[in-house]
Write a structure and sequence with these properties.
Blueprint lengths: L1 H28 L4 H10 L13 H6 L9 H5 L9 H11 L5 H13 L13 H36 L4 H15 L2 H12 L23 H39 L2 H8 L4 H19 L1 H11 L2 H6 L5 H10 L3 H29 L11
Helix pairs in contact: 1-16, 7-10, 7-13, 8-10, 9-10, 10-12, 11-12, 12-16, 13-16, 15-16
GO biological process, one term: microcin transport
InterPro entries: MetI-like, MetI-like_sf
Organism: Tepidicaulis marinus
């Protein structure tokens, strides 16, 4: 097992390099960039992703004077740069690191990331690590509770549907699951706000934030209640469509196992149905469900909450990544991509190792990575 873990860890290195290289190349051909954004600030044509993004390096450009020079060759590279001092443009390129060749910039980025040095945001004037840590509690809350509640609902429901396959219970729960899966999470979030957060009917839950403004002054038990009070609607919005796939996967996996010969043999020996189901079938049927855990967790943790964070004014990693891409804040874009990819691969490895805990018959040492 140690040799398998070592091979998987070593395989992460070229995988990360490939992800970062492809992303870096795509960015080179993408229109716009941090230099163009500062120029747009100077000319009054900037359109930001949100009103919260600004300051930092952008103030550098706003504080510089302009000249009526011809623009030169350096200004011709950037849209809207005509009329700006070429030396000022060169200073911008140096500030953002674009005075170096492409391969040198990529090599320096990889070297820094290997040491977990992610630099500073272009437009927020704060270290990327500090920025990510600041947004982490929101994404952890959404991802953790969404995944936990999804599995707590999906596994028992999937087992119940498998045992009652074809019954009325199976039919109407399948209908409810399909409807829940078909309704977009952000649309359900708007519905919850309208009904329960002061839209038109009830004012039961808060509309924004992860905690109340006086959270630090509350006693510990009130802090816990306040936290769950704020997180209830966002998590419910994400759970409504998340459990459908896992429920049907659990059901189909149990149905497949129930039809196998060892189940017939166990029943013939006089074992009770519960003993057969949870003593024999459960371990084998849950393997495929466990395989889907990394994707469910990482998806809910990082990608599945962008719109939910926006609707409920939750400043998390999903919203941070979206804003950084739109505003061309490349240090944040590449750092979050690197962190997300690394965490995803580690979680996938943990999931594979969980296979051996659920079913000791699986031996990764005999497999090729």
């Amino acid at each position: 097992m140690a040799a398998y873990i070592l091979r998987r860890l070593l395989l992460m290195i070229p995988t990360l390099l490939g992800i970062m290289l492809v992303s870096f190349i795509v960015v080179q051909f993408a229109p716009g960039g941090p230099v163009e954004r500062v120029i747009a600030q100077l000319t009054g044509t900037e359109v930001s992703a949100t009103a919260r993004v600004g300051g930092g390096s952008g103030d550098f450009g706003a504080n510089q004077g302009t000249s009526g020079g011809s623009g030169g060759d350096v200004t011709s590279k950037y849209r809207g740069a005509q009329g700006l001092d070429p030396e000022f443009i060169k200073e911008l390129e140096k500030q953002f690191g674009f005075d170096k060749p492409v391969h040198e910039r990529f090599g320096l980025m990889i070297w820094n990331y290997a040491r977990f040095d992610f630099g500073e945001s272009y437009f927020r004037d704060v270290a990327v690590v500090d920025l990510v840590l600041e947004k982490m509690p929101v994404s952890i809350s959404l991802g953790l509770w969404t995944t936990l509640i999804t599995y707590l609902i999906s596994i028992p429901l999937g087992i119940a549907k498998a045992v009652r396959d074809g019954s009325r219970f199976d039919v109407w729960t399948s209908g409810a699951i399909i409807v829940g899966y078909a309704v977009p999470g952000f649309l359900f979030a708007v519905f919850l706000i309208v009904v329960f957060a002061g839209g038109n009917y009830f004012q039961i839950f808060p509309l924004r934030g992860l905690t109340s403004e006086n959270w630090a002054e509350l006693p510990w038990y009130a802090q816990i209640l306040d936290y769950f009070w704020h997180i209830a609607l966002p998590v419910l919005s994400m759970v409504i469509g998340a459990f459908a796939t896992t429920t049907l996967l659990t059901k189909n996996s149990f149905l497949d196992e129930i039809k196998k010969h060892y189940v017939v043999t166990a029943r013939a020996k006089g074992l009770k149905e519960r003993q057969v189901l949870y003593g024999h079938v459960f371990r084998n049927a849950m393997l495929i469900v466990v395989a889907g855990f990394p994707g469910a967790f990482v998806g809910a943790f990082f990608a599945g909450s962008i719109l939910i964070e926006t609707i409920f004014s939750l400043d998390g990693l999903g919203l941070l990544s979206f804003e950084s891409i739109v505003n061309r804040d490349y240090p944040v874009v590449f750092a979050t991509l690197y962190i997300f990819s690394l965490i995803g691969m580690v979680v996938t490895l943990i999931s594979d190792l969980t296979y051996t805990w659920i079913d000791p018959r699986i031996d990764f040492e005999t497999r090729e990575v």
